[in-house]
What does this fold into?
Amino acid sequence: MIGPSRVAELDIPAAGVETGVARPAQSYWNESWERLRENRLGVAAGVLLVVLALIAVMAPILSAVLTHFQPQTIDLDSTFARPGVGGHILGADELGRDTLTRLIWGARVSLGVAFLTVAMSLTVGTAVGMVAGYYGGWIDDVLMRFVDMVLAIPAIFLFILMSILIRPNAITLAAIVASVGWGSVARLVRGEVLSVKQRDFILATRSIGAKDSRLMLRHLLPNVLPVLIVAASLGVGQIILVEAALDFLGLGIQPPTPSWGNMLTNAQSYFFRSGWLVALPGITIFLTVLASNLFGNAVRDAFDPRLKSH
Amino acid sequence: MLAKYVARRFLASTVVVLGVTAITLALMKTTSGSYVPGIDLNPALRPEDIARLRAQLGLDEPPQVWYATWLWNALHGDFGHSMIDGSTVTSHILDRLPNTIELTATAIVIGVVLAIPLGVIGALRRGSKTDHSLTVVSVAGFAVPQFWMGLMLILIFSVTLEQHGLPWLPSSGAFSAYNGGDVFDRLEHLILPATVLSFFYTSTWSRFIRSSMLEVLSQDYIRTARAKGMSERRVVYLHGLRNALIPLITLIGLELPGLVSGGLVVEVVFGWPGIGKLAFERALQYDYTTVMGVTFFATLLVVAGNLLADLLYGVLDPRIRYG
It folds into this structure.
């Protein structure tokens, strides 16, 4: 789910070519940041994501000032209102609830769950991958066989079973999706650790008596950080899609809390009344995921030029 | 060497399959304890009846005993009976399997047939307008929620066309219940769901073929072939494409479990009577045996797909050694 997934193969016009002019030495982070900034499409996508996040955060203010509706306000006079009718900027649903307001509140769910999922997957995956790669031997074998197992379960089945078990809210839903996502992060981190720990500076650090925990946290972690950043930014879009699908299937965030996915659950029943109800949440998901993917690719190109595709 | 590799992989796979089924059972058990599916719907049942039903269905047994029994029977090809309708799980799977294969295989074939030329064109005309527009389409392909694309296709090709009195496409099922079932009828039902699934495959695979083709074309043997004066067509198709297709095999192999789970959402949207929809509906009803059976089947496909992809990779690319 997270990691050099299919998205990694997307090819986005990347940062400008390095000029041959001599310039002062820069840190890796500065250089990556410069590269990222030069990628206009990537920056635009990043800005869009920030705007969406702000909209999500400001949902209560926006619904008071901009749309003048609450997400659960039922208005039976304007059921299936078309966009612009009855003060509903993007129309209203079968109960007259304002679509724009619900999309804004839905952003909280979708983005919140996505970021939380990424955070959880990265934390668990990094811990497991680092321990497996650092200690090696039977610990590595046991942990990695377990990862194999987790990744071999058709993820959607696992999500279905766990959603029935937990009846998720935003936090538990993130945990459910992360319960698969950490596996690929662990693999990724383990691979990096295996290569980094061969380097001389690790031997040097150990020879002056550094403990395992210090080696892992102070010396290995900073070296796998670029991989983690790339994995995180490429993972967000995929997770938004998974979350929306689970909501749509009725397994994720439950109504009446609006989410982009569960706004579409009933859509099939109202095809004949309003196509807008079907189109709008999907377009929102599409644009958000598109922005996440484009931004993720830009981040990958900037932070890990080795991975850059042609 | 190869035999040893296969044997080791097989052993590892067994562990994975055991683990997955155990995890599934643990989840089902914690989900529902020893709930008998549908029992709360029948007010006439007395407590002693419920107890008798529990014992009969083996729900009283501790999970490890239940699991051992299930595993023993499964190894003998017996996945037990559905807890909902009493027919065998095997018959359920076999009943739905042809529909799922019909949908997924069609989508995969369309995906491959479209992805190869699109990927090659993108690689050969790298940086051109064509290449850029192909990129845009496949970037979009990654970002479209499959279930929403399904809904939109239904909205356009079933609902709107019908409203305007034009010929429209069926939006649900694999064939018409009334007067249906012939080849034409099945094809008609196949168009929309197969479009959704194959759009996804095409956008994924064409990118892979493009970058794999670009990589191959920069190899020394391609330069050698050109230096020998070989025609560009021969270079590209005989030497380039053949090698560029190798990674695709892995991708398709990894898509084998998609036979069961990949199309789940699409099957639900289009009411397609396949295995994914079966698993989804039965999981909601706590039909343990059916869910276990489908999960077992799906995991076997994952493991088999991975192994097959690895082996085929070696056959196609002799440089790869198994160790």
